[in-house]
Design a protein that fits this description.
By secondary structure, the protein is of the alpha+beta class. It is built from 14 helices and 51 strands. The strands form 12 sheets. It has a 9-stranded antiparallel β-sheet with strand order 27-28-31-32-41-38-37-34-35, with helices on one face. A hairpin with a 4-residue loop joins strand 29 and strand 30. It is globular and about 100 Å long. The two termini are 53 Å apart.
């Protein structure tokens, strides 16, 4: 028999920012890499050195050491430095599936740009659980194995097979009892702060560790991973390892290698691996230490909620607006596709995705720095949206007269927007106004006409007079002008990933503009009703909703709950002496905000008296009470079967978790929630043996946009934007609990900091949708996208048309790309001059979908997540394409 090969891999787990801010960590990174590179150059370090599965370490290093770029490139080419596949090491549940794909693409592309070959090892050593589609995502990049630790308690051997949502299987290496730091702890004694190196002791420790790994590994290749948190190259222990490598051994051969080399041997031995795990990996830590020390760390789903909201907004801006609308403008009006700007925007965004950044579990300064990065991404995305939409709008056929304004309304989703839309129109200040009665308030006068020239009756909602705007001319100084901004609601259908054009015109003869009276949706001073739903605000501010279609009534919706939180960014800390306060006993004020035939809105102001903070000296909520003000705008639109809620919280309370509860009245035993490229089903009841676990299982679990629970008669879905933690409580009414915020003062390695208490105003958006016996997973996914993306208008006066018009031959209403069927589109963008469309199947069974594309492409090809072909090129006949997707399959189509 041949010898068993033992692969020693030298790395360091590099949190870019965490208990120190980025620049402090980078100072240490530069020192570490200086030492590693010097060792590789002079031969003291045989190499290779692995950069923690991420490439940004090299980017950060070379920004300080640009004179060493040629040397770094050489070491990458020679394989002495190994980087990738990630750009940064992300969290898998707090970012979108598209963000995970772009992260891998950017990391791998950067290595290639520097002359190296990116690692194909699916490294995820410290991520707080793993989503159900990661096996398929990794295989979409040609990555055939994963290296993981948290979220799974499988420790019978070091290897198991992980089967993802679609059935994709990859072999995994599961790190040992201290995870990726096991070698650092057992051999280097890195956790023993005053340990003095002794060569004989080190040799004995290495031998014991080696034998343990041989015993625990059922396949022939063995991995010795030396890469603890921020651990520099330990030259003393490394010298002992080199001596052991030089010894003759009949059974093993120790090589200084890479994860890829280990993986290559592992793939030849897959049939020897007996263990199998399936789906998402979110098991809490089970075994007592020191047998195992993995912690799932579930509280990061709701830490520092503003970070999550900003990230969701940036993801929606890039994936739903900047990329697809820029592709549309490129195809239809010949605009340059702004790939360079998009690369920069994604780079800013991905720098906020490391798991100690996006998770909200770092010191205050780290999360303050993140705001700047989000701002840079947002500025680029907004400018790209403006340019693409304005260029398309200016080139719609027809002229704009002096007393007219063109308003082109864009829908970024591949399904049509139907129903009532709310738009804010920027009416020229010089247009006439009219007064009611004795001139108490001037109102801008205007009429609205659709793409066919038919007048549309609208509901006037708000106005802000004399707002300053600016017009930029490339050869003139900026022009300032004023508009009267009027918010209106009107019936409007906008084609799938397309636009429709409205003409807003000053009235010709009379100065006022009114429409025939119509009965509003408000039925009493605290209720409203449309074709599908009847909503009543109760005296305590909760909602009673009657679902007319299914003849079911839901009560106590919009109940707020404040309980103590003595935790930190990692965990919601449950106090023994807790008192949970509920808004069911609180007074509420109701104000009628809108009452029209298009929509009605009621403002509900709930004021809860809750403990002002947690008294840590007495370990109970304080006796001092504070008023928690909750202002919820409840909106019901004509034709909608969901209720819109926007809640603003003036948080003056510390050390608490705030949730909003929605009793579903369902008898379900499980519920659904969306996840990156998936919809997962989870049991409502927690595991019966959770009391035996070292880390308690908690009821809160992740979502991307929505959670739904239902039985054969009734159910409820909650769709939200940037709120990633929900629970379906194991109570008779099966309430959905949506976490709004967690206010905590503890931060890692500090005496406590203020920012995590989230004092001040916070606004949250979520929709409530009663369900029947079935859940339309696809529709809920698109409702989540619709809430996140909304509509956008390009508004052009004659002066703007002169600046931006080119051919002017686009139709007044058009769809660029439409999808029929049950697939969910997540990306539409140009890649190397071709159009790529990515979608996934949220169901377990095979589905059919049909794409309709209004562009001049005549070929189509399936490609992987890195744009490499996986099928032959097929001719595209006409503008329709039928697509078959297997259960939970992710598919990328390339049109050329």
């Amino acid at each position: 028999m041949t010898k068993r090969r033992v692969h020693y891999v030298l790395s360091t787990h590099w949190d870019r920012e965490w208990y120190q801010a980025f620049q402090h960590f980078r100072y240490r990174l530069v020192q570490l890499l200086d030492e590693v590179i010097d060792g590789l150059e002079d031969g003291r370090l045989k190499g290779p050195f692995t950069t923690d599965g991420q490439t940004i370490m090299l980017e950060d290093y070379l920004e300080v050491r640009p004179e060493r770029e040629d040397l770094v490139r050489q070491l990458l080419r020679e394989g002495k430095l190994v980087a990738g596949p990630w750009y940064v090491m992300p969290d898998e549940f707090l970012v979108s599936g598209e963000s995970l794909v772009r992260n891998l693409r950017m990391g791998r592309d950067l290595v290639r740009q520097m002359g190296g070959t990116p690692s194909d090892a699916g490294f995820g050593c410290d991520l707080f659980g793993h989503n159900s589609q990661l096996p398929q995502i990794l295989k979409g990049f040609g990555i055939e194995a994963a290296f993981i630790w948290r979220g799974v308690n499988y420790n019978a051997t070091r290897n198991f097979i992980w089967r993802g949502a679609d059935g994709s299987e990859i072999p995994c290496y599961r790190f040992g009892h201290i995870g990726y730091s096991t070698y650092a702890g057992d051999v280097r004694h890195a956790f023993e702060l005053h340990f003095v190196f002794d060569a004989e002791q080190a040799a004995a420790d290495l031998e014991a560790f080696l034998q343990k790994q041989l015993e625990e590994t059922e396949v022939r290749p063995v991995l010795l991973f030396d890469g603890g948190d921020h651990q520099a190259w330990d030259q003393d222990v490394y010298g002992v390892l080199l001596e052991r490598m030089a010894q003759e051994d009949e059974e093993i051969e120790i090589v200084h290698g890479t994860l890829d080399a280990y993986m290559e041997e592992l793939l030849d031995e897959v049939e020897r691996i007996e263990g199998l795990v399936e789906g998402e990996l979110r098991e809490p830590g089970r075994d007592p230490e020191p047998a195992d020390s993995q912690w799932l760390i579930p509280g990061v789903l709701s830490s520092r909620v503003g970070i999550k909201q900003a990230n969701a907004a940036c993801q929606a801006l890039l994936c739903h607006w900047a990329e697809p609308l820029s592709a549309m403008a490129s195809d239809l009006v010949g605009a340059e596709y702004p790939q360079g700007f998009l690369n920069v925007a994604w780079r800013w965004l991905l720098k906020n995705h490391p798991h100690d950044s996006i998770c909200g579990c770092s010191i205050d300064q780290v999360h303050r720095d993140m705001r700047f990065r989000f701002s840079q991404c947002r500025q680029i995305g907004e400018r790209l949206r403006i340019e693409a939409c304005r260029g398309l709008a200016a080139n719609v056929e027809g002229e704009v007269a002096d007393d007219e304004m063109r308003v082109t309304v864009f829908n970024p989703l591949p399904v049509a927007h139907e129903g009532v839309a709310t738009l804010t129109l920027e009416i020229p200040e010089e247009w006439s106004t009219f007064d009611e009665f004795f001139g108490f308030e001037p109102k801008p006068a205007f009429r609205i006409y659709d793409a066919e020239g038919e007048e549309i009756a609208y509901q006037r909602m708000e106005q802000a007079m004399g707002q300053i705007k600016k017009r930029l001319n490339p050869v003139r100084f900026p022009e300032s002008y004023r508009t009267d901004d009027v918010t209106v609601s009107l019936p409007l259908d906008v084609p799938a990933l397309g636009y429709t054009t409205l003409t807003v015109r000053a009235p010709e003869d009379d100065a006022f503009t009114r429409h025939p009276s119509a009965v509003g949706l408000t039925t009493t001073e605290r209720s409203m009703e449309n074709e599908h739903l009847a909503v009543v605000v109760e005296a305590n501010g909760t909602l009673t909703v009657h679902d007319k279609e299914n003849d079911e009534t839901y009560r106590r919706l919009l109940t707020f709950e404040s309980c103590a939180d003595i935790g930190d960014g990692w965990f919601h800390g449950q106090a023994v002496n807790d008192e949970a306060y509920l808004s069911t006993g609180s007074p509420a004020e109701v104000a009628l905000v809108e009452n029209g035939s298009m929509l009605s809105s009621l403002r509900v102001r709930t004021r809860m008296q809750v403990p002002a903070e947690f008294d840590f000296s007495d370990m109970r909520r304080a006796d001092e009470m504070a008023t928690l003000s909750l202002d919820s705008l409840i909106t019901l639109r004509k034709g909608a079967d969901w209720i819109e809620v926007e809640t603003t919280v003036d948080n003056v309370v510390k050390d608490h978790r705030l949730r909003v509860l929605f009793p579903s009245g369902s008898g379900a035993q499980s519920y659904l929630a969306d996840s990156p490229y998936d919809v997962v089903e989870r049991p409502i009841a927690l595991r019966s043996d959770r009391h035996l676990y070292r880390e308690l299982e908690v009821e809160t679990k992740p979502q991307q946009h929505w959670t739904a629970v239902h039985d054969a008669q009734r159910g409820l879905a909650v769709v939200s934007d940037g709120l990633l933690e929900t629970a379906v409580r194991d109570l008779p009414q099966r309430p959905i609990a949506l976490t709004l915020l967690r206010a905590t003062g503890r931060t890692v390695m500090t005496d406590g900091e203020p920012d995590g208490q989230l004092q001040g105003r916070h606004t949250f958006r979520y929709w409530l949708l009663p369900l029947g016996e079935r859940v339309n997973r696809t529709r809920l996914c698109y409702l989540g996208q619709r809430l996140a993306a909304g509509l956008y208008t390009a508004q052009l006066q004659p002066e703007d048309m002169a600046l931006h018009r080119d051919e002017g031959d686009l139709p007044s209403s058009a769809s660029y790309l439409a999808l029929e069927g049950r697939a969910v589109v997540t990306s539409v963008r140009q890649v190397d001059g071709a159009l790529e469309v990515r979608m996934f199947n949220p169901l377990e069974e095979e589905i059919e979908a049909e794409l309709t594309l209004d562009a001049s492409y005549d070929r189509v090809q399936r490609v992987n997540l890195e744009s490499a072909p996986v099928e032959e090129v097929q001719p595209l006949v006409g503008d329709h394409l039928a697509v078959t997707l297997g259960g939970k399959e992710i598919a990328t189509l390339r049109f050329s």
